[in-house]
Amino acid sequence: MKGIRGRTKGFILCIAAVLALGLTCQARLATADIKELRIGIGIDADTLNPQEQTTSLFFNMCELIYDTLFYETPEGKMEPHLATGYEVSKDGLTWTIRLRKGVKFSDGTPFDAHVMKLTFDRALDPKRRVPLRFAINMVKECIVVDDYTIQLKLKFPFAPLLGALAMSLVSPISPAAIEKYGDDVRQHPVGAGPYKLAEWVKGDRIVLVRNDNYWGPKPTVERLVFKIVPETATREAMLRAGQIDICYKPSPANVKALKADPKITVEMPLDTRTIFMGMNCQKGPTKNKLVRQAFNYAVDKKAIVKKILFDTAQPMDGPVSPLLFGYARMDHQYDYNPKKAKELLKKANFDFSRTIHMRTPNGRYLFDRQVSETVQAYLQAIGVKVELRTYDWPTYIAGLLKPLDQTELELFLLGWGPLFLDADMALYGQFTCEVNPPKGLGSSFYCNPEYDAIMKQSRLELDREKRRQLLIKASKIIWEDCPWIWLHVEKFVIAYSSKIKGLVVTPTEKFYPTYVTME
Amino acid sequence: MFQYVIKRLISTVPVLLGISLLLFVMLRMLPGDPAQVLAGQMATPEEVEVIRHQLGLDRPIHVQYALFLARLAHLDLGRSARTQNPVIQEIWARLPNTVLLAVLAISLACLFGIPAGIVAAVRPNSWIDYLVTSSALVGISMPVFWLGLMLVVVFSVLLQWLPAGGTGSWKHVVLPSLTLASFVVAFIARMTRSSMLEVLSQDYVTTARAKGLKELWVITKHALKNALIPIITVVGLQFGMLLGGAVLTETVFAWPGLGRLIVDSILARDYPMIQGTILVFGLLYILVNLVVDLIYAVVDPRIRYE
Asked: What's domain B94-299's superfamily in CATH?
């Protein structure tokens, strides 16, 4: 018995040794350097100053160049990066952030608390162009406590601040580079991220190379070449032909074909962006809540997602994307029911002879015009006269921002994509009185003091669970009041060569090729 | 002749000034402004105002125009609203790409279009004439966009001979120049054919033939030379257009040229960029026209400029 045991033990040990050997071999294979990864993207960057960004793709690129204080994993967990930890004072007005020691920018300049202060000072300077300043606007000032600790003094408690600290909006730029280039640092980015800019050929390509000074694990890919290929069909063709390795946002229409190709992997995690048909809550026929609810019943959102968007989206079942903290699926759903829609319209004494004006951008969101046309058709099917107009983006947004007495808005298609995984950005940024145009893009003109009170309270609430309940409470009110025809939550589609393993793809439309391996 | 050129060059100044004034006013009549586009969807009105101020858009329009002219006098087209880079620099980065593509496309088009047109005219209503005229018709009617994508599918995805897009080697320029040329070649072939047909029925051609000259000589020396004027006009016009950038072709083949730059700038209401590029287009167009006029005089000695 004992002998057998001994032999078994030996056998197991033997297998373990073989396995271990295999694993180390594999591990060595995995860390082998990848010379170059080519990524096809649709647009060129205007600036590579992180504070000046507005689009997720370039926030993404900035994170590769600059890194962030905290990093939000695809699951929504916060990992320390340039920061190592934080504490919030009891009154919620002081955030103490400890910084990582020994970090250097790619030009060798050391990173410390003074650099972070400079970063916040620049981000909060009202004379600077910082489009997303509202995300950190509650910060009154940044104080240096010691070389590796800063304190943020807030004007009022703001629980969702951590999300903003994970954005490259407050990523440090090398102070030496700021001194050397001034404002032109936007064309000459120098950061503390895993990559640094090597070449930027306008309209053609942006090339990043590995930053040897990076504090974290050494990136596996030596060069990242972002090729600017505006036409999605060409991008897809290049992926198929092996001329690029990653295709950013291929056309939804071709997702099925790409998935069928064994050489290509398609990922499409749910996004934070919701697409909706806004309705004017203070003017015109949609002022009546019953009409707004009727329109929600009149539109078959499932059919739109399936037939127009090829399943690259999912119908909304609550006022925010399911990924956001504070989301809850609403008990009552506005399932397609034209009969009920007609009944509600009758109840609301709706004037069927009046033409309702609908507007849509063209090419801003996935199949935006086509989605609007479909909504128009659904409304016409229950007897509502709808006229649809299409605009280019600058004209469109100018129209959305007119104050109530000048606005011509009745129905309008828009998308809203919170930049971090918190419902605050969606619920506060679209439905409170203070974001009614011209002050914000809450163009539905929804204004409800009861709702505002709950949202304000949620910002002060530092207990996570209590805050979640408040956000859900607000969600229920807004869901019932229907300032939007709740359409769909987009998915972020990215296609890449099946040889690539370990590409991190997030629901905030970002991807990190830093530690991928190649078969 | 020299005086004529100088006169023409001087006359470009009021033309360009006219263009700039019209453009300046028209652009600002469009709804939406660059500040709003730069600020993005989520920015507060205060942030938009900051950008508007930085771009100088909060000043009265005549002040803005005066500043623009003052800079222009120093050959400074200002800075792009989007990238804050000098407009000249942004244009300069793309101009060689556009010129390369335009020159290649027009050369290819002449190389194939003129002989095809001549052959078709010499043998009117023959099979070769039908072939030329019908392919010209296809060339003109085929959407550039579609043709480009088909070329990508065949040569890039299936055969894997050529890159689908981008720049870097001679291979990158093959597909876009073929695509562009296909459209222009059709124009040139049709124009050559009709012009040649007209000339070939002239008495002096009959005389040349009666003298016993070789047919090749009659066609090239006597007919073609006289038929060239309208062909040169078409080539000049097309070349001028190509220099203005070929948006669709550039988009399909990810070719960083001026066409895409101007469209992107219009979509972002990047006023300085739009003004700068349109002025450069205007200047190029005027220059091409001048060169065309000068070539007329070379081809037809009866044309003289005082």
From this structure: MetI-like (1.10.3720.10)
